[in-house]
Fold each of these.
Amino acid sequence: MLSAAAYPRNRRRSLYPCRPEIGVASTKAFTTQVTVLAMMAFEIGHLKGIVSDSYYKELITELVSIPGKIEKALEINDKALELSKFFSNCHNALYLGRGYLFPVALEGALSLKKSHTYMQKDIRQQR
């Protein structure tokens, strides 16, 4: 991966430290791409005057607060474990997403398929 120094100096560039994926896409890469696209949409909307200064600042503030919200979500690990036990006997799952949330639904479905595959592999190895 090239360092930031390898690119010409320009204040409108987006480099993200996400290594290339070989074989399968990753949630990390997907999330990074969605974040960069959101940042580009905010910036373009602001530059074109579609997004007001106050709303632009609100959007950026929300984007910056995401890591804290993720930390808070990870604190409920015990509740998630209870839910996982409840859903572990389910044989089907349906992910719904409309509009700009459609790719998120696809990513969720892919993640579920990958984790199911890993669990099956672990079960076979334990035999």
Amino acid sequence: MAMGHQSGLKQPMHSGPIYWMMAIRHSRMIYNKFRFVIILALAGLLAGASIDSKDFAAADLFQIAKIWTVEFVFTPAQWKAMQPKNGPGSGHRELGREGGRNGYAAANGVVLDYTHGNFSIDGRSFDDVAVRYKGNGTFFQGQGDGKISLKVDLNKYVKGQKLAKIEKLNFANNITDMGWMNEELSYRLFRDAGVPAPRTSYARVNVTVTNQKAREYLGLYSIVEDVDDVFTQDRFGAKDGLLLKPVTTELFRYLGEDWAKYNQMYDPKNTMTAAQTRRFLDFCKLVTDGSDAEFAAKVGDYLDVDEFARFMAVTVWLTSLDGILDNGQNFYVWLNPATQKFLLLRGPRTIHSDSFRGMVRLHSGEAFRLRVPIRMAIRFWLACLACLRFERFIWQRCGSSATRFSGLSGLLRR
């Protein structure tokens, strides 16, 4: 009876398999809830060199868990010189006037000039830097909200002035990204996929106009790495390749031998050599006029097909339509001098990945196909069949992206 009575007793709540299953589940819930705190704490412990240190590097600047404090100071004359000016438009959707900027704002006659100013980041000061507004669609929206994206050139007026070997910085206003995370995670996904893309961090941006405008907090911005010769030196170990920033829905279409027909459309960021011009024109001829057999045999000689497929895979997966899939902008073309092959690079932009979600059904297929010569579209999309082997990688990245989302959301709520 005693034994039977003992066996009928309830087990204590702190023992038994059910208790331990619940305890493990509860522990996992606590970890998932606070893992961004752990991530940020570790980021703080592993933080790199101080910004005032001679060892401060680009990796220290572009820390996703860091929010910098940035100050711009202008004289009234400098502030006036930076304000947008209206000029004649180009008559095109995105293409600016010859010799000027490209993009929607430029095509509509908006001129954004550099002005002189002083700049500091977390107390480290840079005198006489070049500053201008930047952006196109978001420029107009930013005007109404008082928060326009900015571009800073540390080296333009004071030669040799750099921050961690970097000469130019972009401050994106994130005005179409309510969570301030879309582009940061998108850039990271491109980089994880092996596509060269800018690094980012965050900044609280303040502006002062001496004797005219008291210090004003403009808001939270993203600091975005510029794609220039410093970028290509870091990624490819070379500055002497050809760097282009196209604005065209007919990429690599052959327009004849006169470079003047391509110049504004491809906006070269360095001085082109005769050999680079020849290489570009020969590839355009192959894309536009080559037979199917010739194209299949030679495309790999001109284009890094694997990198191109990765670029297109991530672009499609992100439904990133403010670019090659729609208006043909916000990316770069790089001719690698080591391989003599063209690559596509992800460039800084101000309209974010989910801003065109309602357009996906139309533009991701039909518009891209109709705006590009049909043979060229078929050839390029055949290259994208390599994306099928990329699918597993993308879904594996979903898990790590969710972790980063948790970390960023915690950081930005602070």
Amino acid sequence: MVKSGRDLSGKDYSGQDLRGRQYNKANLTDADLSEADLTDADLSEADLTDADLSEADLTDADLSEANLLNTNLRKAELTNTYLTEADLRGADFRQANVRGVNIDGKGTTIEILTQAGAITTKNISTD
């Protein structure tokens, strides 16, 4: 099912099996994707502002150039997820598994809220 470029703002997809779906350039503002299986999904250039992705499985998903402004990613599975040039400002990564997250490696700074609520900043550089 292709949902590329569609307006899906405010939709409830919580707990659904959305593996491999195409949501690139989709408007998913305020969407509820909590506990959804988004393994291998294409969310590149999607607008996920204020979306709820808590406890979602985003393993191997592509969120390159996605807008994740104030997105809830608490306890999300982000193993090998692509976040190249994604806007992560205000995104909540508390207790999320970010092992193997792929970013551009050109000094990109990632701010991740820790379990205690503190912000950890990592500067990734290939130099």
